[in-house]
Amino acid sequence: MYLEIDNQSPTMVDAKSTTTIVHFPDGIDLQEAILTAREAISYHVAGGKVAGFKSDNPDLVVALEQFYGLKPAPMPKAGTKGNGVAQTTLALALGILFVAHTRLQLRYNNGASWQAGIMGNPSSTGTGAYAPGIYMGISSDSTAPTNTDPTLVGEVTSGTLSRALATYAYTTAATSYTESKVFTSDQTITIYKCALFTAASGGSPIFGSLLTAGGVNSPKSLFSGDQVGITETVNF
To answer: Which of these, 10, 24, 103, 107, could form a disulfide with 1 (CB 3.0-4.6 Å)?
Structure first.
C-alpha cells in the first residue's frame, strides 16, 4: 500500500505544492496506516496543511480526507452502517491518536554506523539507485555545484582522471564518513570539484563539493605525472 500526500505550505502564497510519498509495509492494516500517515504528515508537511491524498487503498483516502476536512463525511444511507470500514477505522484511529505523543528521535551509535555503511561502504548490499556512493568523479569546471545538477558538470571521463572507486572510512558513532582517492594525472588540467556516484559510469551525483584546503576554495593544477589526493566528507 502507498500514499501520496499533496503538501501545501501555509506560510507561502502561490507556492508550488510538494508531494510526500509513504510506502507502507506489506500487510499493514487500515488503522495502523491512518496512524502512520498522520505521523508522516506531522514531520513532513509544514503546519500539517494538506491539499489532498492519492492511494491504492480508497478507504485510506476517504478516512484521511474526512479527518483533515478535505471532504465532508458522507451521510449514511437508510438501512446501512454508514461509510463502512473507513469510517469505523477512522473513529478507532482517532481514539488512539488522542493519547498518542511524539518526541525527538534517538539515533543509537549502531544506527549511525548503519547509516554511514549503507551510504558509503563498498560492502553495502544496496544495488541500482540504492547502491552506496563509492565512485568519485572529478571536474575541470569552475562553477559551484548546485543540488539540482543532474550531472557533475565538466566531469573528466577519460584517462587516469576518470571516475574511480574511492576508499571509505568511518569512525564508530561518528556522524560523518569520508571517501578518498589519489589520482595520478595523464594530462595538464585544473581540477575544481568532485562528486560521489553510485555507479562507475552514468547515473547522477549524490554528494559533492568544490575542492577546498583550510576552509577556502583550492583548485588543483596538474601536469602529466602529478598526483592529487581528494577526500569527500559526507555529514549526515
So the answer is: 24
**Quick count: other Cβ atoms within 10 Å of Cβ 71?**
12
Residue 104 falls inside a structural domain: no
Confidence class for position 35, pLDDT limits 50, 70, 90: confident
Q: Give the domain extent around 63.
A: 2-97
Contacts 24+ apart (CB under 8 A), 123-131: 128/198, 129/198, 130/198, 131/198, 131/199
Task: Give the cell for residue 69.
Answer: 476536512
CA 151 to each of CA 160, 195, 208: distance values in angstroms, whole numbers, following the listed order: 20, 9, 11
pLDDT over threshold 50, residue 188: yes
Of the candidates 136, 110, 114, the residue with the CA atom closest to the CA atom of residue 126: 114
179 in the same domain as 77: no
What total of structural domains would you count in the chain?
2
